[in-house]
Write a structure and sequence with these properties.
By secondary structure, the chain is of the alpha+beta class. Helix content is about 20%, strand content about 40%. It is built from two helices and twelve strands. Strands 1, 2, 3, 4, 5, 6, 7, 8, 9, 10, 11 and 12 form a twelve-stranded antiparallel beta sheet that branches. The longest helix is centred in the N-terminal third of the chain and has 28 residues. It starts with a helix and ends in a 5-residue tail after the last strand.
Length: about 190
């Protein structure tokens, strides 16, 4: 191999390496990020219109959920979003947020209500009334949905989202300290 052939081969290798590196950078830049879910407000009623021995209707539990699309290049199309609140293993209540489209780098605040189970609410209310500052009742929240990303006009396949968080409620039925509860990806282990 002559000196000229070697320098030409080296030049082609450098160009090929640069193109591979550029393709990798573009791929990583376009890789869509999962949406974030944050509970901004949550309130469990501490009183009801029924006594301990009476049959109660559903208990209304309001919450405010922030849904953020962190992607600068991708819109997100959400299917139904299922929001479920638990106290220990019991379902406090659940509801479904209808499908919607979220543009790039935007957030949406969803103010909604959960119809609470009266029996679970009574257990939770008793735990709240008997709580101490160091031992507040714990709740868990799960958010489940399927989404599609739209990048450069092309829709992706469905991606399953399962986020969760644990938090405490004070004697007043609210999240103590005006905290925001950020949901994280749920473990795939079962």
């Amino acid at each position: 191999m002559t000196e000229e052939e070697r320098s030409c081969a080296l030049w082609f290798l450098q160009v090929a390496g640069l193109l591979i590196f550029l393709a990798l950078c573009i791929f990583l830049a376009l890789l869509a990020k999962s949406p974030t879910f944050t509970i901004l407000d949550f309130s469990i009623p501490t009183t009801s219109n029924c006594s301990i021995n009476e049959e109660c209707g559903d208990i209304i539990i309001p919450y405010l959920l922030e849904i953020r699309n962190p992607n600068k290049d991708s819109d997100i199309y959400y299917d139904d979003i299922s929001v479920i609140f638990y106290h220990e293993q019991d379902v406090v209540g659940s509801n479904t947020i209808p499908p919607f489209h979220q543009r790039k780098n935007k957030k949406k605040n969803v103010s909604s209500n959960v119809n609470g189970d009266p029996l679970v609410w009574r257990t939770l209310r008793n735990a709240m009334l008997n709580a101490t500052a160091k031992q507040l009742p714990k709740l868990n929240v799960n958010v489940l949905t399927k989404i599609k990303y739209k990048t450069w006009g092309k829709l992706s396949k469905h991606h399953g989202i399962h986020k969760h968080a644990g938090f405490t409620v004070g004697k007043d039925g609210k999240i103590p300290g005006k905290k925001k509860i950020k949901l994280v990806q749920a473990s795939k282990k079962r």
